[in-house]
């Protein structure tokens, strides 16, 4: 019903914002990725929205990008994942990290998000497989299987996701697994 709001940003109280659209103030729940990219209070803002009507409430959720809104819509289709949990996932991981976790089927990355247990994480991975990632327009780090193997080796050695991803970006695209691991370790040692 309400697909987009454009107006003046009146208040910013995470995770909610108040947007004045020609005299009507809309309270909108936004993920932190959108919140951090909002302009200063008093400036014009445009948000893509998703409107949910329940028996006890009418809720409006806002997003800065189409991919955030589409990911939110995919998440709320999953049994046991409500709008607030979906916002927590998008806020806690980001779209690209979520797509990467689904591609690699890594439940451990989802469990780090508050409110997500092991069973919910496994259900998310199962139901999101093939629905987010390339279709969402997010960039995958993996151009081939070798890079995936290199990433898994770095994670197994104790490097975190960001360190491993940064090391992968510095590698040549067609590097072999053993050479790639050696180069990545050299880059991480600096």
UniProtKB/TrEMBL annotation:
<dbReference type="InterPro" id="IPR003583">
    <property type="entry name" value="Hlx-hairpin-Hlx_DNA-bd_motif"/>
</dbReference>
<keyword id="KW-0227">DNA damage</keyword>
<keyword id="KW-0238">DNA-binding</keyword>
<keyword id="KW-0378">Hydrolase</keyword>
<dbReference type="InterPro" id="IPR036267">
    <property type="entry name" value="RuvA_C_sf"/>
</dbReference>
<dbReference type="InterPro" id="IPR000085">
    <property type="entry name" value="RuvA"/>
</dbReference>
<feature type="region of interest" description="Domain III">
    <location>
        <begin position="148"/>
        <end position="190"/>
    </location>
</feature>
<keyword id="KW-0963">Cytoplasm</keyword>
<dbReference type="InterPro" id="IPR013849">
    <property type="entry name" value="DNA_helicase_Holl-junc_RuvA_I"/>
</dbReference>
<feature type="domain" description="Helix-hairpin-helix DNA-binding motif class 1">
    <location>
        <begin position="73"/>
        <end position="92"/>
    </location>
</feature>
<comment type="similarity">
    <text>Belongs to the RuvA family.</text>
</comment>
<dbReference type="InterPro" id="IPR012340">
    <property type="entry name" value="NA-bd_OB-fold"/>
</dbReference>
<keyword id="KW-0234">DNA repair</keyword>
<dbReference type="InterPro" id="IPR010994">
    <property type="entry name" value="RuvA_2-like"/>
</dbReference>
<dbReference type="InterPro" id="IPR011114">
    <property type="entry name" value="RuvA_C"/>
</dbReference>
<comment type="subunit">
    <text>Homotetramer. Forms an RuvA(8)-RuvB(12)-Holliday junction (HJ) complex. HJ DNA is sandwiched between 2 RuvA tetramers; dsDNA enters through RuvA and exits via RuvB. An RuvB hexamer assembles on each DNA strand where it exits the tetramer. Each RuvB hexamer is contacted by two RuvA subunits (via domain III) on 2 adjacent RuvB subunits; this complex drives branch migration. In the full resolvosome a probable DNA-RuvA(4)-RuvB(12)-RuvC(2) complex forms which resolves the HJ.</text>
</comment>
<comment type="function">
    <text>The RuvA-RuvB-RuvC complex processes Holliday junction (HJ) DNA during genetic recombination and DNA repair, while the RuvA-RuvB complex plays an important role in the rescue of blocked DNA replication forks via replication fork reversal (RFR). RuvA specifically binds to HJ cruciform DNA, conferring on it an open structure. The RuvB hexamer acts as an ATP-dependent pump, pulling dsDNA into and through the RuvAB complex. HJ branch migration allows RuvC to scan DNA until it finds its consensus sequence, where it cleaves and resolves the cruciform DNA.</text>
</comment>
<dbReference type="GO" id="GO:0003678">
    <property type="term" value="F:DNA helicase activity"/>
</dbReference>
<dbReference type="GO" id="GO:0016787">
    <property type="term" value="F:hydrolase activity"/>
</dbReference>
<dbReference type="Pfam" id="PF01330">
    <property type="entry name" value="RuvA_N"/>
</dbReference>
<protein>
    <recommendedName>
        <fullName>Holliday junction branch migration complex subunit RuvA</fullName>
    </recommendedName>
</protein>
<keyword id="KW-0233">DNA recombination</keyword>
<dbReference type="Pfam" id="PF14520">
    <property type="entry name" value="HHH_5"/>
</dbReference>
<feature type="region of interest" description="Domain I">
    <location>
        <begin position="1"/>
        <end position="64"/>
    </location>
</feature>
<feature type="domain" description="Helix-hairpin-helix DNA-binding motif class 1">
    <location>
        <begin position="108"/>
        <end position="127"/>
    </location>
</feature>
<dbReference type="Pfam" id="PF07499">
    <property type="entry name" value="RuvA_C"/>
</dbReference>
